[in-house]
Design brief:
The complex is a heterodimer of chains A (263) and B (325). Chain A has six helices and 13 strands. Chain A is of the alpha/beta class. Chain A is globular and about 65 Å long. In chain B, the strands form four sheets. In chain B, strands 7-11-6-1-4-5-12 form a seven-stranded parallel β-sheet. In chain B, strands 15-14-16-17-18 form a five-stranded parallel β-sheet. A three-stranded antiparallel β-sheet of chain B has the order 8-9-10. Chain B is built from eight helices and 18 strands. The chains are: A alpha/beta (263), B alpha/beta (325). At the A-B interface, α3, α4, β7, β8 and β9 of A face α3, α4, β7, β9 and β10 of B. The structure holds flavin-adenine dinucleotide and adenosine monophosphate. Adenosine monophosphate (AMP) binds next to α1, β4 and α3 of chain A.
Chain lengths: 263, 325
């Protein structure tokens, strides 16, 4: 079995995210990191390999992003991927969700994976939908927010929480699965793996290399067009108490609740 | 014609509340665009009267398609078939999880633009503009569609339910074919309720616990505090701790849990992720205890306490007990 894991480079959690008011796109300057949710997808791939129900020949990390996204791939490799593929092309910059999913599907197409894994959401985009777009283009069954995944030779038995409780779904391979962050506890990379990550094969591809129709990608060709941005309705800032003396803090909470007749 | 097709999720004989809101919203928008709102239900032997009842939320016509329930891809096929028949400019979904999967799959199928987490939609110059909060709700972007069909996926509780009492809608059977990949997934069990059947919707006071409680036993701190408040208080939870098996699913607030609006919502060790916020932001008073002063929950709390819940909760419980005497 060959597993492809989709990973994304996102602004570090500590960086304040902003949008560029002239383009409506995210200002991507500042410290960046591998999307934390994607480490669960890599770990899930590792557990399939280690579970041994079916032999896993290869785990390939795949990303679409600017030059700097190489570091997210190195991180993915240090966490267990065998090699990586980087789709980087000015033509795909600014793509919306649908165009990004199409471009990623084209990139995956050449790899012919038996299983595509994704994270539950990107920390910056928060769409939780790339998996469904990719699956439709690849013509594969899919499920998102999966928190338990058992391999049964040619199928997966998946559990996830949906609107009415927990669902168990059987999915035939090949399939596209986005995993929820409760699926596992990602391991830490060893120092050796971190050092060795840069030596593992990393293939850079352009839109043309993977047969992406340039008319379907990029900011200008995306069907969902950003037209304006505005500030959310102002909300009165809440009161903040820094807990130094807990006895005093609790007194303040009690009187706050009491003033509002909540006790 | 500028018609809008709205997906109506149903389960055990009832239409999902977020779908009802989407039908009401779709009907309002379709009227502004000079078109009609049509709803679609996909399921096994869908009750015709349930389908027709969507007329009370101003659906003009309801399409009913026979297909597997609880899975997205069969619905993509059904909606794709309906839309290929012509006349639709937009497809609309209420908040939830399936709607995200169907809407995204449909966008890929049709080459359509999609906006998710939409909190408001308006008609302007014969087209729809969707408002989507981004970057942890610190800004709102406005999205227009350049594709023939635009796909709008609402945020949980974004669209108000309006029962107009217009009476039954026309129901039409839709036939469609399942695409090969849509036959590759099968529901084994649906809607399993994990953990005890607790009631959080009736409570005036909710003490909600999250991953910051550290372990399942940490919930004792929340239960003690709820106990001190008395009979009108209950304990609620986030998806993170429910998925971890620390607390029952019935107590979960948020996108795939309950929507609540108690007099007091007190969060302990909860970061305030958007998918949690959408289920509790209408609470009258919001108090949060979190050790991280940058936690998003402080952005929408009325009273925020930056500190360790393990120190604060036990003392708070004692103080509430003392106050109540
Ligand atoms: C499609 C989808 C649907 C979802 N549906 C839901 C839903 O219905 N409901 C829901 O809740 N979530 C839902 N989520 C998940 C959501 O995105 C968050 O992951 C989840 O709400 C986080 O839960 P948490 O706040 O308990 O954990 P975390 O985000 O891990 O936060 C824990 C917090 O505890 C604080 N903390 C740690 N230790 C202490 C201490 N000793 N004292 C004080 N504070 C401490 C930390 O600073 C942190 O802020 C959904 C996600 C997706 C993608
Ligand atoms: N540019 C990208 N390159 C590779 N994978 C991506 C990209 N954007 C999103 N993903 C994957 O899709 C998942 C869901 O992201 P999103 O739909 O943006 O919330 C992420 O966790 C990643 O696994």
């Amino acid at each position: 079995m060959k597993i492809c894991v989709l990973v994304k480079e996102v602004p570090d959690a500590a960086v304040e995210k902003r949008i560029n008011s002239s383009t409506g796109r995210m200002d991507r300057s500042g410290e960046k990191n591998l999307n934390p949710y994607d480490t669960h997808a890599i770990e899930a791939a590792m557990q399939v390999r280690e579970g041994g129900v079916v032999p896993v020949e290869e785990i390939v990390a795949v990303t679409m992003g600017p030059e700097s996204a190489v570091r997210a791939l190195h991180k993915a490799v240090s966490l267990g991927a065998d090699r990586s593929v980087h789709l980087s092309d000015p033509a795909v910059a600014g793509s919306d969700v649908a165009a990004t999913g199409y471009a990623l599907a084209q990139t995956l197409q050449r790899e012919k994976p038996d299983l595509v894994l994704l994270g539950q959401q990107s920390d910056d985009g928060e769409c939780y939908t790339i998996g469904a777009v990719v699956a439709e283009h690849l013509g594969m069954p899919s499920l998102t927010q999966v928190i338990k995944m058992d391999v049964e030779s040619d199928a997966l038995r998946c559990e996830r929480q949906a609107e009415y409780g927990y669902d168990t779904v059987q999915i035939k391979l090949p399939a596209v699965i986005s995993v929820g962050d409760a699926i596992n506890e990602p391991r830490y990379p060893s120092l050796k793996a971190i050092m060795g990550a840069k030596k593992k094969p990393l293939e850079a591809v352009t839109a043309g290399d993977v047969g992406i129709d340039a008319a379907k990608v990029g900011g200008d060709n995306s069907a969902a067009q950003w037209v304006a941005a505005k500030a959310p309705p102002a909300k009165a800032a809440g009161e903040i108490i820094e807990d130094e003396d807990t006895g005093e803090t609790v007194e303040k909470i009690i009187s706050w609740l009491d003033e509002r007749k909540l006790i | 014609m500028a018609n809008i097709l709205i997906y109506a999720l149903h389960y055990e004989g009832a239409i999902n509340k977020n779908s009802l809101g989407a039908v009401s919203e779709g009907a309002k928008l379709a009227a502004e665009l000079g078109g009609e709102a049509h709803a679609i239900l996909v399921g096994q032997g869908v009750d015709q009267s349930l389908a027709a009842s969507l007329g009370n939320y101003d659906a003009k016509k309801v399409l009913v398609a026979e297909g597997p329930e609880g899975l997205a891809q069969p619905v993509v096929d059904a909606m794709g078939a309906a839309i290929s028949g012509g006349g639709y400019s937009y497809a609309l979904f209420g908040g939830g999880l399936l709607g995200f999967e169907i809407g995204a799959g449909l966008a890929a199928r049709l080459g359509a633009g999609v906006a998710m987490e939409v909190t408001a939609v308006r008609a302007e110059g014969g087209e729809l503009i969707a408002e989507r909060p981004i970057l942890g709700d610190s800004a709102i972007s406005e999205i227009k569609y350049r594709s023939e069909v635009g796909i709008v996926i609402g945020r949980l509780n974004a669209f108000e339910i309006k029962e107009s009492g217009a009476g039954d809608a026309d129901v039409e059977q839709l036939s469609f074919e399942l695409s090969p990949h849509a036959t590759q997934a099968t529901m084994v069990t649906r809607g399993e309720q994990r953990g005890a059947d607790v009631d959080i919707e009736g409570a005036d006071i909710l003490v909600a616990g999250g991953r910051g409680l550290g372990k399942a036993e940490g919930f004792q701190l929340c239960e003690d505090l709820a106990g001190a408040f008395g009979n009108n208080a209950a304990v609620a939870a986030t998806r993170a701790v429910v998925d971890a098996g620390w607390y029952p699913y019935a107590a979960q607030i948020g996108q795939t849990g309950k929507t609540v609006a108690p007099k007091l919502y007190l969060a302990a060790g909860i970061s305030g992720a958007i998918q949690h916020k959408v289920g509790m932001q209408s609470s009258e008073n919001i108090v949060a205890i979190n050790k991280d002063s940058n936690a998003p929950i402080f952005e929408f709390s009325d009273l925020g306490i930056v500190g360790d819940l393990n120190k604060i909760l036990p003392k708070l419980t004692e103080a509430v007990k003392a106050k109540k005497g």
